[in-house]
Amino acid sequence: MSTPQHHTNTTTAFFFQAAISFAVSTVALGLGIAYLSADPWMRGFLALGTLYVITSTFTLAKCVRDRQEETEVVSRVDKARLDKLLAEHDPFKVDNL
Description:
Blueprint: H1 12-34, H2 40-88
Helix pairs in contact: 1-2
Protein name: YiaAB two helix domain-containing protein
Domain YiaAB two helix: 14-66
InterPro entries: YiaA-like, YiaAB
């Protein structure tokens, strides 16, 4: 009795859509900051904040992915142990005490 493995692979189209969306939003925000009628130090502060948010987002995405992969590996190990126990179990074997 095996449980189905759920592997969700992203399609190439979805990957490109996500990459293009990220690029467009980053460029639009950068242009908005560049053309903002504010002092240069204020624009610099907003640009630095934007870079911080972007790097934090990548770090969070990596941590979520790593945790998901770790959970998947632990699940596979537990399933392998259970399969081994079930394969070795003989319900008709009588233990002599």
